[in-house]
Known about the structure:
The chain has 496 residues and is of the alpha/beta class. Helix content is 33%, strand content 27%.
Amino acid sequence: MNALPDRVESALSYTFAREHGIIVLNRGQIARLGVLARPRAEAILEARRAVGVPIMLETLAPAVFERHLAESYALDGIEADKIADQFSGDHSLSHLIEGIPKVADLLEAADEAPVIRLINGLIAEAVKVRASDIHVEPYENKLSVRLRIDGVLQEVISLAGRIAPLLVSRIKVMARLDIAEKRLPQDGRLSLTIGGKSLDVRVSTLPSQHGERVVMRLLDKTQGHMELDQLGMEPRSLAAFRRALAEPNGIVLATGPTGSGKTTTLYAALSMLNDKTTNILTVEDPVEYALDGVGQTQVNPRVGMTFAAGLRAILRQDPDVVMVGEIRDAETAQIAVQGSLTGHLVLSTVHTNSAISAVTRLRDMGIESFLLASTIKAVVAQRLVRRLCETCKKPAPASQAECAALGLEGPGPVTLWKPTGCPACKNAGYRGRLGIYEVVTVHDDLRAKIHDNASEQELTAVAFRDTETLAQCGFRHVMNGMTSVEEVFRVVRQDS
């Protein structure tokens, strides 16, 4: 009886597996094939011939089949040495400027030119390890490629510098950018599918001393929708947030640095409000995920469609709820306040370090204190911390410094969980992320302080009498064994 080939997936091409709904699940003297409902007999016979051993069929649900398809045919990583060897000698850029479909499936392009296979491998690897960004960085003698995994950059390959122009040019072709323009930054996007999973990729290029840097942000269309209950807020904070969203008018803000999950929080809020009886309109930069039943508009500064212009326009569209991607300037802030005063619930984000500093930021933009006091209903500040790998985390006694940071003075030793590193987490010690939040609702005492133009310190003292701060939320997760003290300090100021 013949043994299965080393790569049994390659016995069936990706196109065959996808079109006929047949995939090889495991190796062995009898191969187990996963099938969708009622595949054609001819397809089963062809799969049996290609595999070369007896087969056993197992019916899979469509979602399970798609997951196995992606895992089996995504490239198994990036073989840097092998790819670098294929770039020896002179290469013309002309073969990189071929037109590609607007939506292409990467897994069908395994026999393309080496630079295309490299890009495919990078994106496939990024999807496999749940990376949010791919950084392509040329230096004097090398090309470095790093992936942002769980918020932290990790280098995955380092190639010869001569490959950089080829790689950057092909990415620019895919994103419909001008490959002849190397002196100015450019922004574009492309849509891809990999193993049935739809991805939006935002591409940004930036000229540098040794060539153009490229950052590709990966947005998985299937994972952009979360419910409020899935965000991981503490029950009291979640209840306060829901009460603020139930207000008929006012402003609800999400604040935090880039990549802290503010957009996900606002989308979850919109999902709760989207009950088919309200008119919900958004103006975003860019529209990251499509929401059924929500009118979404993308800003375009080149034609004058700024946040302020978009917000002014959608307020004339009879909205009940308005979401503005970001309050960046005084004009947008003024229109948002006026919109809330005229009976609309306005959701937006501000880039500040804490919930209270969002109030002072709007005040610095020129919004009068009495308007802020009457319009702001709640502010959510948030961060994302890495979650300890459940496979390899280990208990260890807390140091004196850690006990002091956590405010622990009780008798007896305190045990915390520490990262170790294993193959499951690629030796990082962490796998996945969780949110930490502080939710400040504007109650009567805080409203009076805002109205009286109190300082940020005074506002903080009143706001957090009955709710936890970002640091306290993070330390609660530390005590529950979900993350580490070092990870909380990495994303939260120690004086918060």
